[in-house]
Amino acid sequence: MKIVVLDGYALNPGDISWEGLRSLGELTVYERTSFTNTEEIIQRIGEAEIVLTNKTPITHEVIQAVSTLKYIGVLATGYNVVDLAAAAESGIAVTNIPAYGTDAVAQHTFALLLEIANQVGIHNESVHQGEWVNSQDFMYSKTPLIELSGKVFGLVGYGAIAQATARIAHAFNMQVIYYNHREKPAQGDWDRQVALDELFHQADVVSLHVPETDETRGMIDLQALRQMKSTAILLNTARGGLLNELEVAEALNEGRIAAAGIDVLSKEPMQTGNPLLEAKHCVITPHIAWAAREARERLMAIAVENVASFITGKTKNVVTAKK
Fold first, then answer.
1. Where is the D-isomer specific 2-hydroxyacid dehydrogenase catalytic domain (predicted)?
2. Across the chain, which distance is largest between two alpha carbons, in Å?
3. Which candidate in 268, 278, 293, 294 is catalytic?
4. Cα dihedral angle (127, 234, 291, 102), rounded to 10 degrees?
5. One of 44, 209, 239, 296 is an active-site residue; which one?
6. Which residue spans within 209-286 are E strands per DSSP?
7. Domain 102-284 fold
8. How many CB atoms lie within 10 A of CB 115?
9. pLDDT tens figures, 119-167
């Protein structure tokens, strides 16, 4: 059984092992494959029966060109890189990796918030540049600092990652509210579901935890931003397309919201001229919320289990086209 990994570098830059997959067949791993060069994608899949991809798209054209393909494993939870309808027409199984990075993403969400609240990076740089050595006072602050206790933490979406994030917020003595497109039980007497407009009005922190769909794409736009407090902090560790990036940047520059912590963008890698790059009070990390080694090891283990299950005829974590 021939197995091809099209873009393995993000999952495994060299600190974890491919041996689990190698034990299941003849394995070829490419660190990167062009997202836009369909001919290269087809050529690299070759005569493989199994292909694994993270962000390299498996389009209708690719599926039609590779007659040997029987299985597509997405090395992520989101699977919009695969033409599911075309895969179904060709009898190709498609799987994803659910729930591997819940705690890592929740942790990173708070890393962004704490950086905004305490500005550790700026103060660390200041100290290393000698400002504390030359200070007349035993302390100084370069920026206003924010205490999170008592603030309202609002989560848009309330799946596993959002709930893990909410528990951290609760541990910081924050008031937790959440919006979900359908009724979702609270975790205790400390979190409650509200309407989206109410969340925007009340929250001191707005944290996004929904998939990117036709309904959610661009949901944080001028209308949503106008409902938020001028002191609000916006966090996005979900999908870049949830933001109208230009309107968010304008809101930051005009002081209509206080700050933003962003880990995902509409186009990745970041494009020159993205308005968020020059926006005021905007902390940006390069899509690393999922990338703790422990989370990647879990992802790899599930990927191996998915392939092994397919080979034995007991395919699991199957995804299908939405009707």
1. 26-319
2. 74
3. 268
4. 130
5. 239
6. 233-236, 259-262, 282-284
7. Rossmann fold (3.40.50)
8. 16
9. 999 999 999 999 999 999 999 999 999 999 999 999 999 999 999 999 9
Token look-up 């036709």 returns: 214
Phi, psi of 74 (to 5 degrees): -85, 125
State the CATH class of domain 2-100+293-311: alpha beta
Instruction: Sort residue 173 into left (φ over 0), alpha (ψ -120 to 50) or beta.
Output: left
| Domain locations in the chain as residue ranges | 2-100+293-311, 102-284
What pLDDT was estimated at residue 322? 65
Predicted confidence at residue 224, as pLDDT, reads 98
The whole-number average pLDDT for the span 245-272 is: 97
Label the pairing between strands 175-179 and 191-193. Answer: parallel
Listed residue (128, 151, 50) closest to 95, CA to CA: 50
Q: Tell me the pLDDT tens digit for each residue of 307-318.
A: 999 999 999 999
Q: What residues are paired with 282 via a beta bridge?
A: 260
> 318 has which bridge partners?
95
Active-site annotation holds for 287: yes
Task: Specify whether the CB–CB gap between 235 and 208 falls below 8 A.
Answer: yes
Q: What six digits make up the tokens of 286?
A: 């390069």
User: Cα(219)–Cα(187) distance, rounded to whole angstroms?
Assistant: 26
Instruction: Count how many Cα atoms sit within 13 Å of the Cα of residue 268 in the half-sphere of its side chain.
Output: 17
- Whose structure tokens read 């302390």? 139
**Catalytic, out of 108, 209, 287, 298:** 287
> What six digits make up the tokens of 215?
């309904």
Report the alpha-carbon distance of residue 82 to residue 75 in Å, rounded: 11
Q: Could you report the per-residue pLDDT of 178-205, keeping only the tens digit for each?
A: 999 999 999 999 999 999 999 999 999 9
